[in-house]
Structure formats: structure tokens, C-alpha cells
Amino acid sequence: MTRDIYITEVALRDGSHAISHQYTVEQVRKVAKALNDAGVPYIEISHGDGLAGSSLQYGLSRTNEMELIEAAVTVADRSKIAVLLLPGIGTVKELKEAAKLGAKMARIATHVTEADVALQHIHAAKDLGMETVGFLMMAHMAPIEKLVEQAKLMESYGADTVYVVDSAGYLLPDQVAERIRALKQSIGVNVGFHGHNNLSLAMANTLAAIKEGATRIDGSVRCLGAGAGNTQTEVLVAVLDRMGIKTGVDLYKMMDLAEDIIAPILQTPQEITRDSLTLGYAGVYSSFALHAKRAAAKFGIDSRDILIELGKRKVVGGQEDMIVDVAAEIAKSKAISI
Amino acid sequence: MDLAKVKVAILGSGNIGTDLMMKLGRSDVLELTSVIGIDPESEGLKRARELGYTAIDTGIEGFLERPELADIVFDATSAKAHIRHAKLLKKAGKKVIDMTPAARGPFVVPAVNMGTNLDADNINLITCGGQATIPMVHAVNRVSPVEYAEIVATISSRSAGPGTRANIDEFTETTSRGIVEIGGAKKGKAIIILNPAEPPILMRNTVYALVEEGTMDEAKIVESIKQMEKNVQSYVPGYRLRTDPIIDGNKITIFLEVEGAGDYLPKYSGNLDIMTAAGVKVAEEFAKNQLAKQLV
Fold first, then answer.
1. Which residues of this UniProt protein bind Mn(2+) (chain A) (predicted)?
2. In chain A, how long is the greatest CA-to-CA distance?
3. What pLDDT is attached to residue A215?
4. How far apart are CA B97 and CA B13, in angstroms?
């Protein structure tokens, strides 16, 4: 099959945030089978924060992610199973376990300025015979020269693809375009884009990325991802088809999956709520939304105040412990001012 | 007459070695005699000479020619080098405080298990995250059994050296082991995050502990945590609770911050300061024990 764009479906990984990491084996089997049958080339599965992300910090998984990976592998005869790993959370040990179960792609994610912590994991993934992706998160937080420097590091470690990851859903289409353009000019490997829809720009940003030469794109069916979710896969397939860009994905099958299998899994529909809009507006990591909502309820404050303060403090992905800390501080200062 | 002191040497003239040099200058029971490096032009060795210490620039072999210079040696080189150093120093009958992640000797957190390791000839300090959080896991566990403890250490990007970065799995794995073996939790997990914000942030640590169902004693646990804070502060002055612990059912969340002493390393690098401070504390306990034996 010829494809111009290779889609990685992230609903079973990024989408895990939206349902507080409650996936069951049965749900994953159904979704993975449908994605496979629709012709999606890569399906990512892990805890929302990557392998070994199940924790008090990020939320405990209902099902061991290795069981979920195994379930997906057994139903996917065409699609490749991908896993995400954030160095500092997951280790080579979990990567090996996932590879043994049949995962074929390793996406190693670091903050946009910290690519060098990925060296060990990219090398390990290569040794395991996996395809590798360097995933530069919170790409809005570094100047373009820095992004380029870090992408070159990822490439030098052996990444087959380097992604610009708009974890906060903060970037505007022109900002995505200039980032992708800079990478296309400076690295030789594939360039990818992962968006979040917090400012309703995931689709526009994805198209901007594709126009500048990105060929690896993340989507989540029915927007099932952190914050307001990612670029909606079934919509992206339709739009790209109109543009004459081949994804190799069956549109009707994706629509049916979204409607018949994913919609019932969602406890609440994926919308741009005031919290997710605040994420995109303040430049905060998308998975903070649900944690901030809980902390706001606990301390009787506005979750937007927490998110805006986190943005000011330049908190990076993974610092969920800062949410309660900041919430407690805001509640305290409010109590004093009353 | 001056009170007797035990002689010590620092192997490694980098940032950690230089910070140790500053701290050792203040000790009542330790006498720093020498700093050992491999580059005569290194900043660390230059500074050692300026401060009047013997600067050896021929590595461990140079020190072994003059073993009378120290009874206790800090190894602030690298995990790989330490494996060789450990053997040579053991043969020479020296006590070794291993600042690297080599983990040849028993794990020690001074506030928790120093007493049981006074006879060990090689001590390992686990990790910075371990030194900061294991005391708190222990503080909870000594009141109510900890079923599971999880720690999150956030450090400024500037304070994470190339060794830590190239081997970040070592941090999570070694710290998790320490949480169980020294902290006393039945299960442990560690997470490390690098934050590049400028100006650099202080080291922050969050400890989550789940205690056995029905054993939560809020008042006693909080009291134990506060005592432990003081205990660690006795050798790491910049170690403190950021807020009161938060208790929710059988879960305790503890927020910590470590500000460095600013001896040689900048104050934001509390993660490095807590390691050098713990190293000095271990050496002082060794020394007191040795001096007490001499008196008998």
C-alpha cells in the first residue's frame, strides 16, 4: 500500500488520560482490532505517561499495560503496536518486556530541551529491533534553534523519526509550520507532528505540519486524548482524502469505530472545556487538566487559577505533584486575604 | 592541644569533589589532607593547592604510594572508575564513601541506618532522590507500615550532569530499591523529572506513602515526619518540608524542598548538596566511632 502520511493512533495511550487510565483488556482488544481492520499503520498503547506511568503521581492503571499491549498484538495482523516511554518514568526493563510481547515501535519522549536522557533508550530499542521515534514534548517552550539542536541529538542517537510534540496544544499554525520547516532543513530522518486540540487548532496545525513536509502524524479517534484530545483521526482521514493525500486508512471503518466503540467508552464527550482551553492558553501539559479539576474541588478554588499559575512557573510534563502544591498555596493565600 | 581528627582524602577533583573540599574544611572530626585527580591543571586541584591540601595528579596510584594521607577516602569519580578504586582501596585497608552510583557497598542514608553500617568498608549513598526521600518513607513506616511508597524528584536541568543523563534508568532503579531496603516500604517506585526553567528551580521531592489499612495514625505520623525533617536538617541545613503533609484516607503526601548550602555548587543544586552533605556526615560518624575505639 502506498501512503503519503503514516498515522499513529494514540487513543489507547494519550486517550488513557481522558478516562483516568481505566482501559480494560476487552476494550483494547476491540479498539485495536477495529484500527487494524481500518488500515491504521501504528497503534500506540501504554499508560498515558508511557510505560510504567501507572503511579500515584499520574494515576494508577486499572489493567497492567503489558496485558493491554499483549491483547492488541494478538488482534493486530497489519498494524504495528507502538509504545511510549518517558525516561525518568519508564526504563529499558519495561521496553524489553513490551518488545517481547510484540511491540514494534518505541517512541522515546523527553522535554524539548532534554533529549540527551533518551540516548540509552533509543539505543536499547534499536538493539531490540524496534523502529524508533524521538518525541520532543512541550515544543512551544524552546526557541526553534534549541528544538533543532535537540532533534539533531535524537537523530544522532538513531531515531528513525523526530516528532514536534505540542503537548500543551499551545502552538498556532504558523508556529508549527516554522518548527517543522526548520527540522526538515536540518535533519535527514522523518519528521512528525503530535497536536492537542485545546485551542481548536489540532487539525489546522496538523495540516500546516503536513504542508511543510511532516509525514508522521498522530491522531486520536473521536479526539480521545489528554485535555481536549488530539487531532481527530477519522476527520483527518477525510480531510486528507479530499486533499488527495493518501493515508491508507478506511474512512467508513474509522467513523464506525468512533461512533460504535469509542463513544460508549467515553464517560464525557471530548469537548474544549474551560479547563482544556486554559491549558492551551497558558501552555500547560494537557494531562494536567483532570488533576487540576480534582485539586480545585478539594481546595474550593478555580481550576483555571491553578493552571495559569502552573504556566507562569514553567512547569514541565510529568510535574503533576505541583498541581496540589500550587492549589494548596492558592487556597492559603485566598484564606489570608479574606 | 587540638582534638584528634581522622584524616580523609577526596578522589575526584570535579564539582562534587570541590564541594566536598569546602564542606570538609568545617568538620570538627575530619582532617582533609589531600585531593586526588588526574589533571594537574584541573580547577579542583588548583583550588586544593590554594587551600593548602596535598594535590595528587596521578590518580589512585599516586595516592596508594602515600596511603598514610587518609583513613577514609571519598570517591567522587564515576561508577565505572569506582569499581576499580573499590578493590584497590579495600586492599589498602581504607574506608570508602562512594559518591557514584556503583553500589558496591551497603546503601546508607545517615538519618536512617548509619548505626548499623559503622563497620562497613565501603558505603554507597544511593541517589540524591533517595537521600531526600527515604528518610520520610522511614518516618512514616516507623509509625504505620508502608505498603507502597512512590517518590518524584524534580531537579533543575543545570544540576543534572552528563553521567546522570546518560544513565537515568540507574536513578529510578536504585532509588526504588532504596525505598524498600532502607525506607522499609513493601514496594517502591521512583520518578525523576528535569526542569529547564531559568532561573533554575530548587530540588523538589514529593513522597507518596500508602499505609496498611486501618493503621493510619495522623498525629503520630506528622510528628514523626517533623522529627525526621530536623534530623536531616542537622546535616543538610537546606532540607525542609514545603507545606504540612496532606493526609487522605491511607495516603500521605509529603512535599520537600532542598536548597543547597552554596559551598561550591550553586544553591539551586540541592540534589548535589544533599549527596556531599550526606557523604560528610557518614565520614564523621566513621571518624567518631574510630576515635571512640582509640580512647578505649
1. 14, 194, 196
2. 66
3. 98
4. 15
Q: Does residue A146 sit at the B interface (CB-CB below 8 Å)?
A: no
pLDDT at site B2: 54
CATH number for the segment(s) A287-337: 1.10.8.60
User: Could you give the 3-state DSSP secondary structure of residue A14?
Assistant: coil
Domain B128-266 falls in which CATH fold? Dihydrodipicolinate Reductase; domain 2 (3.30.360)
What's the CATH code, domain B6-125+274-295?
Answer: 3.40.50.720
Q: How close, in Å, is residue A164 to chain B by CA atoms? A: 18
pLDDT tens-digit map of B256-289: 999 999 999 999 999 999 999 999 999 999 999 9
CA distance A68 to A39: 20
Q: Which residues of A are catalytic?
A: 17
DSSP string, A181-197: HHHHHH-SSEEEEE---
Torsions phi, psi for A285 (to 5 deg)? -50, 130
How far is the C-alpha of A100 from the C-alpha of A260, rounded, in Å?
32
Q: Which CATH superfamily is domain A6-265 in?
A: Aldolase class I (3.20.20.70)
The ipTM assigned to this model is 0.95
Any chain A CB within 8 A of the CB of B116? no
CB-nearest to B172 from A88, A316, A318 is A88
Amino acid residing at A81: I
Name residues whose C-beta falls within 8 Å of residue B171's C-beta, 6 or more positions apart in sequence: A88, B101, B127, B129, B153, B164, B190, B192
pLDDT band at B134 (very low <50, low <70, confident <90, very high): very high
**Helices of type H across B196-254:** 218-233
Q: How far is A7 from A248, CA to CA, in rounded Å?
A: 9
Distance (Å) from the C-alpha of residue A285 to the closest C-alpha of chain B?
13
At position A323, the amino acid (one-letter code) is I
Neighbours of B206 (CB within 10 A): 25
Chain-wide mean pLDDT for chain B?
95
